[in-house]
Design a protein that fits this description.
nine-stranded mixed sheet, 16 strands
Length: 643
């Protein structure tokens, strides 16, 4: 790189030292920006621990560079061409660091966290992710800006620094080889992701991390073995606890396999008669805080508010996780979330005791209808392997799509195609259970023009309002169908829009809307007991008067036993059990913590774990994880059909 400064006026530094200093500077500036965005608290914790994680990350990053440098021939190292190449390489390193910082800033804006398992998962689905980024941000200008800034920084460095090129002694080369081996080993032994914690503020803890470090940790921990990482109980004791909590599924320690069906369900009080069909609309990222019926003041959901007033609204419902696959897992399988990957994305997840696997042998056609490409997150494979008929974006006629982006078709187009699929089954005289999965309430927040008074792209508020408009249009069209009066429509979110909060599991960020709408079958009302997403599957089987609700860890809303007043909330490694006003959290390395939850604000304060609640939490999560691992969630179709 040309420079007017004379060699004698510049400091001499090794190339690796300059690259390391550049990394530390960019990571520190990124951390400062995220710290300000997170509320600028706990500065000592954030920046001291942040430096520790940056150094640990550097130990891994520098290792292959040290190895290469130690083995580099002396004649090549001192050549003019190699000197120029080192400046080009430094510019490339700075550009990559800037790109990583920008990527983390964008990820933080969406998820309020450092890179985690979501970022790992997104590597698998590059088409959707890259398309989403291209439709959401001015990528060309941003990349151009990165290139210009990297070039400017590299030029500035060249004004004050020149690279050392003196021959290395054999001892120096051995020292570099030793460092290349020992640095990552030391980082692996001394630095752990749990060291991010300790400030008492989950956002500050996240800022203290390093994105590359957390990304690598997520890759290693995408599937966490419960028995190895979490607090446990003897399984016999766990089974007894679950029996006392009215979990009807066969105990894990029983010798028998799960039977296909239980006794015939009794009457369900809120319904005047049983619905023949169920339409379960799973709404992307619709937090309760956006819905007027749940207290929102922005007026974004008039259609859903009307349905809530005319139907049965559930006031205290909590999602199990922070991603669509978690919601789909809970709603179809009725099980507490297992740590690591959702079951939807795992192998050996076919013929489980899902709603579809249970209903199909009883003459009901289960359908999964998705506005996007169902290969994303393994959705098609999971639902097809559990007896659902799959209808996704690839099945929609082109002239039926009013609008689409990389994430999926507009919700109105999803609903139009869903109606066509349901009409086909109804015309053949077949009852159906149709689970719809929407996409419009997702970045890039684009939708057809002329539907609402917020132009596209309208950000989260615009997407919510369009999502609501499409729900209203769907119900108006459904009312024209001959099967409408025999159908229960269920509207529920898969998860909330954001999980940012002062704790790793902020309870308010898991509260979702749930509405039953069937004007010919169900009187308006409000159900106030606290319930979980996992309770919906057994509830719908009972409502349809179908056998099989004893295969779930959840239980019907309409059981005549006392309410448990409990919910399950999690991220990919922290497993929360909320009962009464106490949130018990199970974390890796057998850590157990608790928080007292304010019943009005849902704010949390640290508390002492209650031994009874701890055992209940362990019983649920341990048994769910072990049941899947041992194949005890499976129920072959042939076995069901014989019952």
């Amino acid at each position: 790189m040309p420079t007017s400064a004379t060699p004698s006026s510049r400091s001499t530094l090794p190339w690796l030292t300059v690259a390391a200093l550049a990394a530390l500077l960019i990571w520190t500036l990124l951390r400062a920006g995220l710290w300000l965005a997170a509320g600028a608290s706990h500065a000592g914790h954030v920046f001291v621990r942040g430096l520790w994680f940056d150094l640990a990350t550097l130990a891994w990053v520098l290792s292959p560079m040290l190895l290469l440098s130690a083995l580099l021939p002396a004649r090549l190292r001192g050549s003019t061409a190699f000197g120029r190449l080192r400046w080009v390489a430094l510019g490339g390193v700075i550009a990559l660091l800037l790109f990583g910082a920008l990527s983390e800033a964008v990820f933080w804006e969406e998820f309020s966290t450092r890179f985690n398992f979501i970022a790992v998962d997104y590597l698998v689905y590059t088409q959707e992710v890259i398309g989403n980024i291209l439709e959401s941000y001015p990528v060309g200008r941003l990349l151009g800006g990165i290139a210009l800034l990297a070039g400017a920084l590299c030029w500035g460095v060249s004004r004050i620094v020149r690279f050392a090129d003196a021959p290395r002694s054999g001892r120096a080369r051995l020292a570099m080889l030793a460092a290349a081996l020992l640095l990552p080993l030391a980082a692996d032994r001394l630095a752990e992701i749990e060291q991010m914690e300790g400030s008492g503020d989950a956002l500050a803890d996240e800022v203290a991390g390093n994105g590359l470090f957390t990304f690598a940790a997520a890759m290693r921990r995408n599937e966490l073995d419960y028995g190895r990482w979490y607090a446990t109980l003897p399984q016999e004791e766990a089974d007894d606890i679950l029996a006392g909590l009215h979990v009807e599924r066969l105990p894990l320690t029983a010798d028998d396999r799960p039977s296909a069906m239980d006794d015939e369900p009794g009457d369900v009080v809120p319904f005047s008669r049983r619905p023949r069909n169920v339409v379960l609309v799973t709404i992307e990222s619709l937090s309760a805080e956006y819905v007027g019926a749940y207290g929102a003041k922005e007026g974004l959901t008039p259609e859903l508010d009307r349905l809530a007033a005319e139907g049965l609204r559930f006031a205290n419902v909590y999602a199990t996780g922070t991603r669509t696959v978690r919601g789909l897992e809970a709603l179809s399988l009725g099980t507490p979330p297992v740590p690591g990957q959702a079951i939807v994305r795992r192998t050996h997840n076919n013929h489980l005791s899902t709603v579809g696997e249970i209903l199909a042998p009883q003459g009901v056609v289960p359908m999964f209808i998705y506005g996007g490409y169902g290969y994303f997150d393994n959705m098609n494979s999971y639902f097809r392997g559990n007896d659902y008929l799959i209808v996704d974006r690839t099945d929609f006629p082109k002239d039926s799509i009013a609008f689409e982006n990389v994430w999926g078709v507009a919700d109105e187009s999803l609903y139009a195609n869903a109606l066509a699929a349901m009409n086909e089954k109804a015309a053949a005289g077949k009852p159906f259970f149709a689970q719809l999965m929407t996409t419009s309430n997702h970045r890039p927040y684009t939708y057809p023009d002329g539907r609402i008074d917020i132009p596209s792209p309208g950000g989260r508020h615009g997407a919510v309002k369009y999502t609501d408009w499409a729900i209203g249009q769907f119900i108006r069209d459904a009312k024209k169908q001959p099967w409408f009066d025999d159908t229960l429509f269920v509207f529920v979110a898969d998860h909330c829009a954001s999980v940012a909060g002062k704790t790793r599991l902020p309870v308010a960020k898991y509260r979702i809307p749930l509405v039953f709408y069937a004007p010919a079958l169900l009187k308006p009302g409000v159900y106030t007991d606290r319930v979980s997403q996992i309770d919906l599957a057994p509830t719908l089987l009972e409502v349809m008067k179908k056998r099989g609700d004893d295969h779930f860890f959840g239980r019907s809303f309409f059981e005549d036993t006392p309410s448990l007043d409990r919910a399950f909330i999690s991220n990919y490694q922290d497993l929360g059990y909320l009962r009464g006003d106490l949130l018990t959290v199970l974390s890796p390395r057998r850590v157990v913590k608790a928080w007292r939850i304010d019943p009005q604000t849902l704010e949390s304060t640290p508390a002492e774990p209650d031994p009874t609640r701890v055992k209940e939490a362990i019983a649920y999560y341990q048994t769910a994880a072990m049941a899947f691992k041992q194949g005890r969630l499976q129920m072959g179709s042939a076995a069901v059909a014989t019952q």
